[in-house]
Automatic annotation (TrEMBL):
Any single Gene Ontology cellular-component annotation: membrane
Domain of life: Eukaryota
Transmembrane portions of the chain: 62-79, 99-121, 128-146, 152-178, 190-209, 229-251, 263-280, 300-326, 333-351, 357-375
Source organism per UniProt: Sorghum bicolor (Sorghum)
Name under which the protein is recorded: Probable purine permease
Length: 385
């Protein structure tokens, strides 16, 4: 209104341009172009992944991939079976840690028997033994014997699922020792995996009271837990030292050196463990354990001992093969991937309790594996570039 209040109303109209068919077409074209560019980007990435995979596959002969597949399969099947048999030994009446450790390395002739046809047909010749090589064989054999004894104590006091979850920390130790000894690359994704898997082990420790087996005291459970972690650390150290021996002493000449290394190291471990078993008077104890062994007595006891020896040797042979063909990284990852397999099998066969904390630790552990694989893949891509 004006100042006199007489009254003229001024109307101001705001015109909004209505969308025209041309505008609609333009907007549709922009949206389709955006969707098209996203689809093209995804296709390009998929094509790059496929091309990289084919390039990697073609860079190695078929025999390489066959041996890598068999070695990886041995790790993912034989190691879980060996872990379950270790727990079965204690569940059905076994008590001696030395006997179980001895059974693990009693299968040392297995890789030696695989070598005989290669030597007989003239396709391979024995690697000359030097003082340095003998020293490494003896050292790795001693560490393997100590590692087996620690795991024997762990499986005596922990459920199989818990023991395998704690043993997943071997991936973290493999990464750290691989970086310090074998000079493997360790980036942020790998460090993240180390932290995450360590957190999973801590979660299992916090839930330690919920799955303690009957007859096991809290002190025994804690001892088993600590020895499981120490055994995992020693396992990672053995992986790194084995890669160092292959790279600097044996060389990556042929797969038969894997069999030689495994036969020699297992023989040394067998000698150390047999000496400890003799001092502990474990050989007479075998007969007493076999007589009172559940579900079959001596026959069942012999079955457990034999298959423990076979599965452990196949698992270690597979791990050594992966080390020879690839690196500590892949061996550590596959060694850790067996954790969920062992945990699930233990829940099914032994009815191990699976609490919420343990499930959370399992999920975190799998996440750590994935992070480690992503980190290793990015390192390989950068080095290739």
């Amino acid at each position: 209104m004006d100042k006199e209040g007489g009254g003229h109303h001024h109307h101001h109209t705001i015109r909004v341009p209505s969308p025209t068919p041309d505008n609609n077409i333009a907007m549709g074209e922009e949206t389709s172009q955006a969707n098209g560019s996203t689809t093209t980007s995804l296709r390009r990435k998929a094509a790059e992944v496929i091309a990289t995979s084919l390039e990697t596959y073609r860079s190695k002969p078929f025999s390489f991939w066959l041996l890598l597949f068999l070695s990886s399969g041995a790790m993912l099947t034989a190691f879980p079976a060996s872990s379950l048999l270790s727990r079965l030994y204690y569940t059905d009446g076994g008590q001696s840690k030395w006997i179980l450790s001895w059974a693990a390395v009693a299968g040392w002739p297995l890789p030696a028997l695989l070598l005989l046809p290669l030597y007989a047909l003239g396709k391979a010749s024995p690697t000359p033994l030097s003082l340095t090589l003998c020293f490494w064989y003896a050292l790795l054999g001693f560490l393997s014997a100590a590692d087996n004894l620690m795991y024997a104590w762990a499986y005596a006091y922990l459920p199989a699922s818990t023991a395998s979850l704690v043993a997943a920390s071997s991936l973290a130790f493999s990464a750290l020792f691989g970086r310090a000894i074998a000079k493997n690359t360790l980036n942020m994704s790998s460090l993240n995996a180390v932290v995450v898997i360590t957190a999973g082990v801590v979660i299992v420790a916090l839930d330690s009271g919920s799955d303690r087996p009957p007859g096991v005291t809290p002190r025994q459970y804690a001892l088993g837990f600590v020895l499981d972690v120490l055994g995992s650390a020693l396992h990672g150290l053995i992986f790194a030292l084995s890669e160092l021996v292959f790279a600097r002493v044996l060389g990556r000449r042929s797969f038969h050196v894997v069999l030689e290394q495994q036969a020699a190291v297992s023989l040394c471990a067998f000698a150390f463990t047999s000496a400890g078993l003799a001092v502990a008077e474990g050989f007479p104890a075998m007969r007493r354990e076999a007589a009172r062994f559940a579900h079959g007595g001596e026959a069942a006891y012999a079955n457990v001992m034999v298959w423990t020896a076979v599965t452990f040797q196949l698992g270690v042979l597979g791990g050594t093969g992966v080390l020879f063909l690839a690196s500590t990284v892949l061996a550590g990852v596959l060694n850790a991937v067996r954790v969920p397999l062992t945990s699930i099998a233990a829940v099914i066969w032994f009815h191990d309790p699976m609490s919420g904390f343990k499930i959370l630790a399992l999920v975190i552990t799998v996440w750590g594996f994935a992070s480690y694989m992503v980190g290793h893949s990015s390192v390989r891509k950068t080095s290739r570039s």
